[in-house]
Amino acid sequence: MSKVLYVHAKGGPPVGYALTRVAARAAVHLLALSELPGTVAADAARLCASVVRPDATGERDLVELITDRARAVGADAVVTFSEYAVVAVAEASRRLGLPGAGEACALARDKRLMRSVWDRHGIEQPRFRAVATAAELRSATEELSLPLLLKAAWSAGSTAHQVIESTEQAPGAWERSRAVMAASAQLGYAELHVADAGEDFIVEEIVSGSAGDWFDGPGWGDYVSVEGVVVDGVFKPVCLSGRMPTVAPFTERAGITPAALGDAAQERVVALARRAVEALGLDTCGTHTEIKLGAGGRMWVIETAARFGGAMTVPQIEEVFGLDLVGLFTDQLLGRRPLWPDRTLTPHEAKGAAGSFVVLAVDGAGAPWTRRHRWDSCAVVRSAPVSAGGTLSVVAESSLPDGTPVPVYDPAAGANTMAALCLLSADAPQTVVHDFTALVDALPAILPAAGAEEVTA
Question: Which residue intervals define the domain ATP-grasp in the entry (predicted)?
Answer without folding.
Answer: 115-334
